[in-house]
Amino acid sequence: MPLSNKIEEWMKEAEERPESAVTIVRLIARRLRELTERDEELLAENIALQNGTRVEEYQKRIAHLEYQLDLIKRRFGVDEGTLVELPAQPVEESTPNLLVYNAHGRIFRIELNSDAKELGRITSDMSNDHEPPRILALPSNEEALLLYTSGRVGTYKVSDIPLIELGGAWEWGQAALPDEPRAGELLACITPFSHLPLSDFFLQISRRGCAKKTMTSMAQSVLNNHYIGKGAIQKSDQPFDLMLSHKNDHAVFVTYEGKVIAFDVDDLAYATEERVKLSATDYVIASFITHADDSLVFVTQTGKVIHRESKSIDTSKSSTAKGQSLIPPSRLEQGVRFMGAASVRDSDSIVALDASGRLTIHQADSLTGSGSIAAEAWILSIGLIQADGGKKRTSR
Question: Which of 82, 94, 119, 123 would be 139's cystine partner, CB 3.0–4.6 Å?
């Protein structure tokens, strides 16, 4: 009903029932206030359109949507079951790649083949590194997000990182440096990013066991500002991992001294919170999303493999949890520590880097059977190669 008709009705009501006049005046005043506020909003919108501010904002939104669409096309192609008909484009051929990177931002990219078991060797001395190199397997048509300890982020196409020869001997000086860390920061992690349009949250894990989730609806701001934050509470703490996750996902992180913590992503706050109480010498060495039919493997520096079903890890809802201990106290006293962990299926593979610089691939089911990784020296780190290339799972 038009406002003029409503006012006529209210005035008639006031004449017939004077006791209703005060209530009617309040109604008219409230309506006038709403109209005034709306008029101010329209005026601000008009000004924004005239000076180009709103146009620029819409352009940024469109650019971000096009970026996400490009991620899906490049990584997965067009889904035949999609409700939206997209222009036909050739899907980039994907090959499995391995990234081996250090805290100084240096990245080796190795193109894998099904027959390779010995991938090569890093000949540089790694004893003085800030921390052991990390390993990430992902397809060549993937987008990679780099997170730095300052909270800064940047995205790069994996295919833009130069390849090195499979089976060769390499020094860190030969490795790519797509974005050199700035003063006071280190490269914390690299994460696959093409699942962004299909994900609900960014999940951040810190070295001291803090966790934080951020809605992916904030991705435009994160990418435009090249910043997501440290996700840590203590000044001495720093970012360790960043991953994309979904509602109802089950996350796990593992510590150097053998603690395992599991939690539901839905239970996390949007503010950084401590999820585990760690000793002064303990810190997180692995984090991932796991599923009910996955197994968990934990690898010590001597190459011993501990195997657990994912459902055997209790889910913690308390921020004061101490986690489950998988290394007995007697073994801790002997110096046994975890150097890596992953959520696997039998068809997956594990890549191991030992202190001699040697990179080797091992079938996941053979590791759980033998209980160890054969290595020339202590294990420094491990990485997971998913048999499905990560298309059906988002765990790392």
Answer: 94
What single string gives the DSSP state of each residue in 205-228? EETTSEEEEEEGGGHHHHHHHTB-
**Cα angle value 314/252/376 (rounded, 5°):** 115
For the record, the structure tokens of 303 come out as 């190459």
Residue pLDDT, tens place only, 18-36: 666 667 667 766 766 776 7
Nearest to 187 by CA among 176, 179, 195: 179
Q: Is 127 helix (H, G, I), strand (E, B) or coil?
A: coil
SS3 content of the chain, % helix, strand, coil (to 5): 30, 30, 40
Tokens representing 162 are 């130069």
Alpha helices in the chain (DSSP H): 3-16, 21-51, 53-76, 219-225, 329-333, 364-370
Q: What is the pLDDT of residues 311-358, one digit of tens each?
A: 888 888 776 677 889 999 999 999 999 999 999 998 999 999 999 999
Query: Which single residue is written with the structure tokens 């006529």?
Result: 8
Cα 59 to Cα 146: distance, rounded to the nearest angstrom: 25
Beta carbons of 177 and 105 less than 8 angstroms apart = yes
Residue 228 corresponds to which amino acid?
I
| Residue 250, Cβ density class (10 Å: 0-12 exposed, 13-18 middle, ≥19 buried) | buried
Q: What average pLDDT does the structure give for the chain?
A: 84
